[in-house]
Amino acid sequence: IAHVYCKDVFGIIGENFTFPVQIDQKIVETVWKKNKDKVAEWEEQKKPIYFGPLWNRSVLMENGSLTIVNLEKDDAGTYELQYWDSLKDHYLNFVLVVLDSLPEPNISCNTSAGELVLNCTAHFQGSLNYAWKLSNNPHSYQSQELSIPLENVDTTTNATCIIKFSQTERSSEISLSQCLP
Question: Where exactly are the transmembrane stretches of this chain (predicted)?
Answer without folding.
Answer: none
